């Protein structure tokens, strides 16, 4: 009985509360700048930061050597062995040799096993070498940067007519909206919707606002100034998932490929401009 | 891969008397003196201290810097070009590290 | 009581959705080519398989409902009601009931970004770290950088009309309870809101949440200065 | 510790700056004034602001680890000895100094600097005639991301 009473009162207060909070979009008081003005000024900061040479480009120079060292010139990224110009733009795609849809990084991992003799655990270690660090210069990041930069100027063109790719896209989209985990997040919590919002001072891009998903993925790997090293797409997924409080993300997984397929296909038509730069 | 990998970028060609921008970036941690958050011990600084811009082996600019400059520093300096030649950037850090990087400029 | 909920939820799950034609169309577009189990299987396959993290991925009924719709606006009223019904039952209170806590303690939990963020690579976060990371989404204390995903909370207590005189009256405590409920289980008030159900999941204890509510509402708190 | 300080402390690049001991004897002049005196040998208060120097920097920086700044001046380069950059509120205000020669053609510097907190950025030009002029720009350092 007591329990019931508590429940009832809880229901009542919550209903009451819902109306009670009607004025949730209160105006900023005594603040010099509104959040909207701040968002605009922070964008200005990002534009200024993008001028000059991006330190991430140094990784590409280092990646050129590592690419050869690990026999990746034998690796077919979808355009023939060793051909990397424009490769990123047509990925993810289905690879008959692996019988799987793969994105760039998953493909690199597969080729490292095939042509560099790495075991799966070794590949994982190689990929995660710089995760959670700063000023770390990893060969994997360098390889991804080198291959990605070879697609600069190409437009993203994921082939959704391929049923295997389309299926990965569908799964990716569903995962994007799956609310799960001990903090109830999904990808869409931060990256969907029409209303512009920021997380602390950082403007969030939205898969629902035209062009924004493409703009977001087309600059990866992206150089992060706060860690003074580039971040690959899979490391980005890992960090978002860490912030979502899910269990630790595994690079080169189907989860990664599904997300890449959804995001890159949503960004179809966007010109690749690697590396990006950001906080 | 190491500290001290650099890129120097200038226009491929310039007119005589034109003022160009010499852009450069180098991998360097630029760490200030700090206390390790885990051990509480002091970690000495590691930063570039000096950069020299040379044009056909003549010193044009000298720059002193500390750990207040960001990691993997980007710097751009002006240069008035008179003749084709070599632009050289020489870096030094506080641990005795020395690096050089050059770029060619063609006057047309 | 629990049994009843279970039966009710089973019944509801079996019922077809009452939805407008427009909503039906939307639901159809939502990639029905793939089965829910496959989606969750791919999701889980890309995350640490260690059984000690498995509890993190037990998708509950409310999460399943919320996963179906891109936003609350797209949800049928019936589903909104269902989530509220489920979630209002998922609120517990401190042993001493509704009582003003310590706003300074609350401030610490509000500011810490580390809660629940433990990962098996690199970062120094520990599984025992606690924090709501509230500033990521909310502007709270004036001058402290904050997000705009959630509503602005500066001067929250003032806006609620909380004063030293009325804070311990039944009305004052009722307001405290309302805010407590939102932090403990946001979905009880705003179904499928972006805000995590901090208390329900045990990310924060009832005491933490009471301290946070106090931080937001107390006349002495910097939020209301 | 407030939120902002916490963020700064956790930002690797800035950690050292905030943790470096700041010596502040009673009745002393500001850290900036001391540093300017020590390094250039001039009393900061005597340096005049001029419109002939332009600082381009963001009004708000999303991260203090990497604030892009560009300094240019219309003062002819052959009259200029050296350009100094200071940030008032950094534990070590001095950031860099550049010696210019006529071969530079013009006074210009673009770089990225660390800022521990919201502060003024100063560009001081030391002229060949022994005088000093300066420009000031305030940069508000905020915090971005999930934390």
Principal-axis shape of chain D: globular
Residues in β-strands, percent of chain D: 35-45%
Ends of chain C: how far apart? Answer: 44 Å
Q: Strand tally of chain C, please?
A: 0
Quick check: average pLDDT of chain D? 86
Largest sheet of chain D: 6 strands, mixed
Low-confidence stretches of chain C: 1-24
Provide the gyration radius of chain D in Å.
16 Å
Helix count from the secondary structure assignment of chain C: 9
Q: Name the overall outline of chain C.
A: globular
Helix content of chain D: 10-25%
Strand content of chain C: under 5%
> What letter string, H or E per element, gives the SSE order of chain C?
HHHHHHHHH
The number of helical elements of chain D comes to 3
Question: Alpha-carbon distance between the termini of chain D?
Answer: 15 Å
The chain pair forming the largest interface, with residue counts per chain, is: A-C, 69 and 72 residues
- Helix-strand makeup class of chain C: mainly alpha
* Helix/strand order of chain D, N-terminal first: HHHEEEEEEEEE
Helix content, binned percent of chain C: 40-55%
Structure description:
The complex is a heterotetramer of chains A (279), B (108), C (225) and D (147). Chain A contains eleven helices and seven strands. With 279 residues, chain A is mainly alpha-helical. In chain A, strands 6-5-7 form a three-stranded mixed sheet. A two-stranded antiparallel ribbon of chain A has the order 1-2. Chain A starts with a helix and ends with a strand. Helices cover 0% and strands 56% of the residues of chain B. Chain B is built from no helices and ten strands. The radius of gyration of chain B is 16 Å and the shape is elongated. With 225 residues, chain C is an all-alpha fold. Chain C is 40% helix and 0% strand. Chain C is globular and about 60 Å long. Chain C has helices at residues 2-14, 21-29, 36-45, 61-67, 77-88, 103-111, 156-159, 170-184, 206-217. In chain C, helix 8 packs across helix 9 (206-217). In chain D, the strands form two sheets. In chain D, strands 1, 3, 5, 6, 8 and 9 form a six-stranded mixed sheet that branches. Chain D starts with a helix and ends in a 6-residue tail after the last strand. Chains in contact: A-B, A-C, A-D, B-D, C-D. The interface between A and C is large, with 69 and 72 residues. Strand 8 (74-80) of chain B pairs antiparallel with strand 7 of chain D, so a sheet runs across the interface.
């Amino acid at each position: 009985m007591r329990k019931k009473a508590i429940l009832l009162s809880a229901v009542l207060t919550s209903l009451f509360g819902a109306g009670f909070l009607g004025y949730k979009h209160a105006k900023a008081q005594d603040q010099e700048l509104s959040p909207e003005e701040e968002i605009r000024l922070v964008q200005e900061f990002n534009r200024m930061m993008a001028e000059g040479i991006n330190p991430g480009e140094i990784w590409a120079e280092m990646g050129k050597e590592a690419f050869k060292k690990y026999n990746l010139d034998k690796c077919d990224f979808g355009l023939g062995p060793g051909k990397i110009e424009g490769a990123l733009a047509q990925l993810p795609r289905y690879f008959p040799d692996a019988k799987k849809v793969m994105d760039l990084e998953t493909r690199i991992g597969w080729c490292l096993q095939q042509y560099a003799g790495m075991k799966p655990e070794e590949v994982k270690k190689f990929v995660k070498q710089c995760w959670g660090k700063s000023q770390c210069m990893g060969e994997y990041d360098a390889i991804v940067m080198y291959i990605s930069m070879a697609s600069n100027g190409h437009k993203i063109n994921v082939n959704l007519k391929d049923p295997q790719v389309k299926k990965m896209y569908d799964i990716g989209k569903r995962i994007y909206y799956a609310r799960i985990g001990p903090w109830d997040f999904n990808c869409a919590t931060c990256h969907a919707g029409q209303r512009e919002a920021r997380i602390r001072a950082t403007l969030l891009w939205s898969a629902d606002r035209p062009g924004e998903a493409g703009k977001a993925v087309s600059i990866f790997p992206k150089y992060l100034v706060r860690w003074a090293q580039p971040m690959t797409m899979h490391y980005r997924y890992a960090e978002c998932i860490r912030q979502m409080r899910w269990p630790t993300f595994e690079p080169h997984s189907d989860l990664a490929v599904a997300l890449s397929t959804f995001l890159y296909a949503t960004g179809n038509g966007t010109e690749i401009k690697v590396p990006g730069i950001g906080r | 891969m190491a500290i001290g990998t650099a890129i120097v970028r200038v226009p491929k060609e310039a007119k005589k008397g034109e003022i160009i921008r010499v852009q450069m970036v180098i991998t360097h941690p630029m760490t200030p003196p700090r206390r390790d958050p885990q051990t509480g011990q002091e970690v000495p600084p590691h930063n570039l201290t000096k950069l020299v811009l040379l044009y056909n082996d003549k010193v044009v600019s000298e720059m002193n810097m500390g750990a207040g400059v960001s990691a993997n520093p980007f710097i751009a300096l002006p240069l008035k070009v008179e003749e084709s030649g070599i632009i050289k950037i020489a870096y030094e850090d506080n641990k005795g590290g020395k690096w050089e990087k050059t770029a060619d400029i063609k006057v047309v | 009581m629990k049994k009843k909920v279970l039966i009710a939820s089973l019944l509801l799950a079996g019922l077809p959705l009452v939805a407008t034609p427009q909503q039906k169309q939307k639901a159809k577009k939502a990639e029905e080519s793939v089965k829910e189990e496959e989606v969750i299987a791919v999701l889980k396959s890309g995350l640490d398989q260690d059984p000690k993290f498995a509890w993190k991925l037990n998708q509950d009924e409310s999460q399943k409902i919320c996963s179906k719709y891109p936003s609350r606006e797209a949800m049928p009223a019936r589903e909104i009601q269902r989530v509220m019904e489920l979630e209002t039952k998922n609120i517990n209170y401190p042993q001493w009931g509704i009582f003003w806590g310590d706003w300074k303690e609350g401030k610490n939990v509000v500011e810490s970004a580390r809660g629940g963020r433990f990962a098996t690579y690199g970062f120094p976060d520990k599984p025992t770290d606690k924090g709501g990371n509230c500033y990521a989404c909310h502007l709270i204390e004036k001058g402290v950088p904050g997000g705009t995903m959630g509503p602005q909370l500066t001067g929250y207590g003032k806006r609620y009309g909380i004063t030293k005189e009325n804070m311990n009256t039944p009305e004052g405590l009722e307001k405290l309870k309302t805010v407590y409920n939102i932090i403990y289980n946001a979905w009880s008030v705003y179904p499928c809101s972006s805000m995590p159900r901090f208390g329900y999941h045990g990310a924060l204890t009832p005491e933490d949440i009471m301290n946070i509510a106090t931080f937001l509402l107390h006349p002495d708190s910097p939020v209301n200065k | 510790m407030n939120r902002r300080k916490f963020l700064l402390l956790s930002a690797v690049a800035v950690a050292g700056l905030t943790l470096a001991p700041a010596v502040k004897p009673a009745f002393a002049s500001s850290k900036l004034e001391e540093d300017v005196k020590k390094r250039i040998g001039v009393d900061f208060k005597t340096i005049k602001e001029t419109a002939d120097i332009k600082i381009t920097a963001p009004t708000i920086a999303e991260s203090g680890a990497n604030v892009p700044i560009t300094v240019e001046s219309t003062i002819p380069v052959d009259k200029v000895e050296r350009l100094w950059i200071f940030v008032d509120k950094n534990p070590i205000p001095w950031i860099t100094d550049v010696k210019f020669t006529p071969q530079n053609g013009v006074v210009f510097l673009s770089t990225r600097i660390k800022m521990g907190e919201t502060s003024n950025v100063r560009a001081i030009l030391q002229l060949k005639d022994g005088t000093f002029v300066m420009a000031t720009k305030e940069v508000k350092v905020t915090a971005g991301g999930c934390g």
